[in-house]
Write a structure and sequence with these properties.
Two copies of one chain form a homodimer. Chain A has 205 residues and is of the alpha/beta class. Chain A has one domain: 3-Layer(aba) Sandwich (Rossmann fold). The first copy, chain A, is 49% helix and 11% strand. The first copy, chain A, is built from eight helices and five strands. In chain A, helix 1 crosses helix 8 and helix 6 crosses helix 7. The longest helix of chain A is centred in the C-terminal third of the chain and has 20 residues. Chain A is globular, with a radius of gyration of 17 Å. Strand 5 of chain A pairs antiparallel with strand 5 of chain B.
Amino acid sequence: MKIVTVSREFGSGGREVGKRLADLLGFAYYDREIITAIAEKSSLDEDYIEKTIESGITRSYPITFSHSFAAYIPAAMTPAPGIIASQHAVIKEIASKGDCVIVGRCADVILEDLNPFRLFVCADMSSKMNRCRLRAPEDEKLTDRELERKIKRIDKGRKESHDILASYPWGDRRGYDLCVNTSGVDIKAIIPHIGGYIEEWFKQG
Amino acid sequence: MKIVTVSREFGSGGREVGKRLADLLGFAYYDREIITAIAEKSSLDEDYIEKTIESGITRSYPITFSHSFAAYIPAAMTPAPGIIASQHAVIKEIASKGDCVIVGRCADVILEDLNPFRLFVCADMSSKMNRCRLRAPEDEKLTDRELERKIKRIDKGRKESHDILASYPWGDRRGYDLCVNTSGVDIKAIIPHIGGYIEEWFKQG
């Protein structure tokens, strides 16, 4: 089974990279579908699931709590039981169906034993802000400062939920096979080269 | 002018990547030549220059000194004056001559204003150890533990000399356009894809 996982900074175009790679390679593509499947499995609300998975478990606690007190936090403040187990089950089920590209949701770590190709997509802050404004009309109402804060907040959540599971920190080169910086880059034009790299990597593996 | 800088972990095959990329792209290739040129400019010994540039300035001090006392360290213990200035002058001179690939020596930071394509090459420890043993017969005498310590010591030096100059730490994805993990990868076979990516990147720039 050939699995490509795409981890990405918010606004870096990781989703577009994942979608285009899936088209090029002829692989199935999973992104938002994962949240929907977890909702079905756990009977929880999709928004709640997305927030919990993307924002990191620790962010469910009030920030004044030190991590060392985590054991004393009342159960009501921890994420709904089963949500992490469902995330693992859904991602493993997807991976068993056939060659695929999976965007986010810690699939790189959850599927570690299947030796996926792990791609990380990043960009500098101004490129990410530009991309956000182009893609999401609701971001146009934000000031530059607000948009930058939003981007940093989302990435902080991704980092937290990743780092609980992984041996290397989120975005650390050592945890990925390729890190691509999309600053000032036309994504469509670079896809054939990334795709070629990935095909060669699987051929060797 | 098209400039590709290759930063690399010791044993990751960064040198081979750089050489093969230069051949593919038809660019000049610089590595050890930089040290020779600095030696000519500064009338200092090549080995001394290599040690100073690769190992980082702070490593010239006894390790018992705290960094905060650096100002009180006798002049004799700081690197020979002019060595850093010569490094900058030599690398800038090389870059002005034409399209090139430059391996190491902080060229990514020194040439920042010329907007080089910044490549980072890494690999996991066991791949780096294998590569070292294959390439350097003298490493065969080392135990695994000694070889691992050697690799870490050299990379620590590279990190230190880089981080004095740069805005992002050595090996941090944000300071590079592409980070390639060569663990278990046949370098020769991936070069066309990295080269294609770089050519497309320059076309867009």
